[in-house]
Structures are given as C-alpha cells and as structure tokens.
Amino acid sequence: MRDFNLDALALLASETSLSSPSNLELSVSEVLPLDQNPAAVYLARLTKNGRRPQKNALDMIARILVGEDANCFSIDWSQVRYQHTAAVRSYLMDRYAPATANRMLSALRGTLEQAWLLGQMSAENYMRAAHVKAVIGETLPAGRALSKDEIAALLQDCINDPRPIGARDAAVIAILYSGGLRRAEVTKLELSDYNQEESMLKVHGKRSKERTVYLVKGAVAALEAWLEIRGDENGPIFVTVNKGNNLVMAKPLKHKVSTTY
C-alpha cells in the first residue's frame, strides 16, 4: 500500500508554470511514472501545506538545470551530480534570502535521496551531489533604523516632559544613539561605570565582555541632567520611575519593558 497520494501529485504536475533562467543543460530523459519519479515521491511525503512551495522550488531548480521548458517531473534526477548542485546553490544564494535558499536546497536533497532509494542513483553519486553546504547569511534585526529627525523629535518630547521619566528617557535615547549600546547594555550600567572626567562609560556586553564608550557632548549633557535627579547613590544608572514620579533605586530599568507610563 502506497503512503503517498498520486492524484495530488498528478494535479500538481498539471499546474506547472515556467520561466527562463540560465541553465546547466542537463539532459532530459523519458518522463517516469509518478511512483518512480524521485520528485513526485519526495513531494508525496510532505504535508499538504508544505507540498506546493517545495514543488515550486523543485520546478525552479529543474529550470536552472535544464531550461525554461522543464519542471520537476520532466527531468532525470539520477543524472544530477555535485557540479550541478553546487551551481544551483550559487544561483539560489545570489537571488534569495538564506532561509529561502536553504529550504529550496532541502527540496533538492530530498529528491536526490529518493532517486537513490529508488535505485536510480548510486550511493556515491547521491552523497556527492547532496553534499552542498547550507547558505549562511545574516539578516537585519526586526524593525527599522530611525532617522535623525525622528530621534531629535523623541529627544525633544523627553526634554519637554517635566517629570523625572523625561530626563531619564532623554539620557537613555542619547546614549543608545551616540554610543551604539544595546538596550540590555544600557540597563546594566552602574553609576561606577561612568567616568565623568573622561565622559566615558564602561559597557558590559555579552559573554562578560567589556568595552569603553566615549560620549559626545549632547549625550553627556543628557546623562548629567538625569544624574542630577537620580543622585549619587551607588547602583544602576537608570532606575524605574513609578506612577507617583518617585525613583525606585532598587529596581533597575528593564530593557524589555516600555519606558513610558
């Protein structure tokens, strides 16, 4: 008894849309029945929601390998070798985000595995062809960078706020912007980390790493204005301000909590 749905795969095969990227001219052989086609067998083992995007990925890879008239059911996957998969990886890496490229490469590896399991590819050829490294890349953090005008507007709002929280948040924004600190690093700052004479902060980063940050005049002014309110008691530089506008010296500011009340 088969554990995959040939009718679903037949429907997918009839819906193939094509484009025309440059190709590696891998030859095409006689189209195999779906129950012997590595791509069809691979796709049939996926969930319904996962099947279509991976078929689209295999269609794209087929067009890279053969040409614009190809789809994942029309090429002979048993002919794919390492030089082909390496070129596919390079193509995907240049055009897609790392996560997308790796998902598409996963579909390629899965199809090659089925070609081997179906006896159409030797273990050595399969292992070589499937041995392509994942695409590694870095993405920008969530959100967006604020413009200078937006930062200036935020600072002005804090300056116009007569409550202690206004002076505190102005100092936080100024240090974040001018010193390049992370939010967590700002909340870890102790009064002893500030060298007033040198306008310098000792910053405690990840994995117990420390670095020195020199503040510009604007950031120094904002920090000094806050420290006049905070006082010279040892402890965190930035502390919680409660709803009664009182400073809670034993409660440092949390970097995951909004600073407004």
What are the defining features of this structure?
disordered N terminus; 2 domains; 10 helices; disordered C terminus; mainly alpha; three-stranded antiparallel beta sheet; single chain; two-stranded antiparallel ribbon; 261 residues; hpI Integrase, Chain A
Brief overview:
With 261 residues, the protein is mostly helical. It is built from 10 helices and 5 strands.
Trace the largest sheet across and list its strands. 1-2-3
Specify the helix fraction band.
40-55%
| Secondary structure: number of strands | 5
**Quaternary structure type:** single chain
Total domains: 2
**Number of discrete helical segments:** 10
- Rg (CA only): 30 Å
- Helix vs. strand class: mainly alpha
The biggest sheet, with number of strands, parallel, antiparallel or mixed sense and barrel status, is: 3 strands, antiparallel
Q: Would you kindly provide a written description of the structure presented here, covering whatever features stand out?
A:
There is one protein chain. The chain has two domains: 6-130, no CATH class; 148-252, hpI Integrase, Chain A (Orthogonal Bundle), CATH 1.10.443.10. 48% of the residues lie in helices and 8% in strands. It has helices at residues 6-14, 38-44, 48-65, 82-95, 98-117, 123-130, 148-160, 164-179, 183-188, 217-230, and strands spanning 194-195, 200-204, 210-214, 239-241, 247-252. Helix 3 packs across helix 5 (98-117), helix 7 (148-160) packs antiparallel against helix 8 (164-179) and helix 8 (164-179) runs antiparallel to helix 10. The model is unreliable at 1-25 and 257-261 (pLDDT under 50).
